[in-house]
Write a structure and sequence with these properties.
CATH superfamily of the largest domain: CRISPR-associated endonuclease Cas1, C-terminal domain
CATH architecture of the largest domain: Up-down Bundle
Radius of gyration: 20 Å
Strand content: 15-25%
CATH class of the largest domain: Mainly Alpha
Shape: globular
Number of helices: 10
Number of strands: 10
Structural class: alpha/beta
Distance between the termini: 23 Å
Largest sheet: 4 strands, mixed
């Protein structure tokens, strides 16, 4: 099973040879592809061969590309990663509005529950209790937007009353970086299971290629929030980014077993698809800490 997160930070050439990714710089290094779960290309000056790209797709390795500011801005997403994707896409298109709305309500409730737990861990009991009160107010498809109300209370409690998610600052830069890493993991898993990332159950932006990923990842955002709060940011540079990148190797509990976040995403996605296909919300498996 793949487990390594590989970061390419300096200018080099990457190619493929006999099951290994070969990194050609001042020194030449080899990394066994079967060990790689995530490949992060931080430097736009890195070049890759077509043979390596083909092998990365075949091995279902998540490849994330960064811009000149070392911020993730693209990823390698295969067209087909499941033998029966045509059948699954037909099923996905026919998911009923009722079951999609019910699943989304469950996802929102779990997200708010985890936000409340985090605030309680930080000793912010009043805000945590307020979020808990929202859980009984969630309607089908979160028609009353409890998620939005909870988000305002939550982020103000975490980062101060003047904090907004739209502001350009190092806290938002760190949050966005961490979210993009988690989003990439969801993109890979959704495609690997034969579904389209574009067709969401709630998100429906015609310009968003990852509507379904944005839906499913919501309860996992809190893992990033915890990391960013732990950093106590003064700067957001390579060291902080690599700290956030390691989030996929952290351990959570799902299906009554300890798993890495990367594996938990696989279990969780499969359970959500089972719930959507069987119209049975009890099949959804959320993680716990």
């Amino acid at each position: 099973m793949s487990w390594r997160t590989v970061v390419i930070a300096s200018r080099c050439k990457l190619d493929y040879k006999m099951g290994f990714m070969v990194v050609r710089a001042e020194e030449t290094k080899k990394i066994f592809l079967d060990e790689i779960a995530v490949l992060l290309i931080e430097n736009p000056a890195v070049s890759l061969t077509g043979c390596l790209l083909e092998a990365l797709v075949e091995k279902k390795i998540r490849v994330v590309f960064c811009d000149a500011k070392r911020t993730p801005n693209a990823e390698l997403v295969p067209y087909y990663n499941s033998y029966d994707c045509s059948r699954k896409i037909k099923v996905q298109i026919n998911w009923s509005d009722d079951v999609k709305g019910a699943v989304w309500s469950d996802i929102v409730a779990e997200k708010i529950r985890k936000q409340s737990d985090f605030l309680e861990d930080l000793g912010k009991d009043d805000e945590a209790e307020l979020l808990r009160s929202y859980l009984s107010q969630i309607e089908l498809c979160d028609a009353t937007n409890r998620e939005g109300h909870a988000a305002k209370v939550y982020f103000n409690a975490l980062f101060g009353m003047d904090f907004t998610r739209s502001e350009e600052n190092i806290t938002n830069a760190a949050l966005n970086y961490g979210y993009s890493i988690v989003l990439s993991a969801f993109n890979r898993e959704i495609v690997a299971q034969g579904y389209l990332t574009q067709l969401g159950i709630f998100h429906d932006n015609m310009f968003n290629h990852f509507n379904l990923s944005c839906d499913l990842m919501e309860p996992f955002r809190i893992l990033v929030d915890r990391k960013v709060k732990e950093l106590k940011l003064v700067d957001f540079a390579s060291e902080e980014k690599h700290f956030l990148l390691n989030i996929l190797n952290d351990t959570v509990v799902i299906n009554k077993t300890k798993q890495t976040v990367l594996n938990a995403i696989k279990y969780y996605c499969r359970s959500v698809f089972d719930a959507l296909n069987e119209n049975d919300l009890s099949l959804i498996q959320f993680y716990s800490l």
